[in-house]
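Entry 14. Structure prediction run on the chain below.
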Amino acid sequence: MDKIKNLLLPLALIFGAIAVFETGARYGATNMRAHAIASELQLPLGIYISGQSTMDEKNAAQWTMIIDNGIAAGAIHRQIWYLNEAAKAQLDKVLAFALTVRGDGTINYFEAIANSEQPKIGDAKLHEIRSAIHSAKVELIDNAPKPQAAEPAEMATPDSDS
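Output returned:
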């Protein structure tokens, strides 16, 4: 019994260290994934916006699919409660821009998948994606604070005070 008692404290310390490491790794990975989703969404958005007028229909459909899937991933990921502020702010910034560019097209894309005869995604996952996109659109676009006009005093240059 004494041998077991002598092993309990070191075992407890080892398992405690493992738990702390795993928690830190999970939170860090989640935050890095948010940054990655935001970064991965910027390139297709740039290509789509710059080439929208010259793209043929097939290429435009491919780019919108890539963008819509990125928006879905970002909308679901931004709902994680332990996402830190910097990661969420970057993800929200890119998502707001992407949702502005695509409008209701992203929601319509996933509605079309849900209404197709052979959906590639399960009903529960589609419902989660659509509700995440809808809540992101409401929070980032519809209920976003309007930019306020700068005060005249703020617009003055530092040299004008002398």
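The domain at 2-143 is CATH 1.20.58 (Methane Monooxygenase Hydroxylase; Chain G, domain 1).
Filed with the rest of this week's runs.
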